[in-house]
């Protein structure tokens, strides 16, 4: 009886955390970061990526500035390797919490919680 209860609790936890016994939970980029397809990003993030591809012009003065990676969530690189861009948040009175961070090697990262977490953008 106890074994059946424990197995059901574990199954519920796996389902709630997005994992499964077959290993088909959230994908990662190999470095531990979750990934997201560009097509699954919010429309504002896709527009920001278009602006980055076009070289601007950008709507915010801080767009294109160096991202310091002080949180250490992205792979360690020398200062100046990463740059950040604002992803507008509808209804926000300021720049909001969403950003795209690019690396000199072509990497693209998305955060919607002001650098608390990142997902590698897959194009």
* Helix-and-strand structural type: alpha+beta
The helix content is: 10-25%
Give the termini separation.
Answer: 49 Å
Question: How are the strands ordered across the major sheet?
Answer: 1-6-5-4-3-2
Low-pLDDT stretches are 9-24
Description:
The protein has 123 residues and is of the alpha+beta class. It is 22% helix and 20% strand. The chain is built from two helices and six strands, in the order H-E-H-E-E-E-E-E. The chain has helices at 2-16, 43-54, and strands spanning 34-37, 65-67, 82-86, 99-103, 108-111, 119-122. It has a six-stranded mixed sheet, covered by helices on one side. A hairpin with a 7-residue loop joins strand 5 (108-111) and strand 6 (119-122). The longest helix has 15 residues, at 2-16. The model is unreliable at 9-24 (pLDDT under 50).
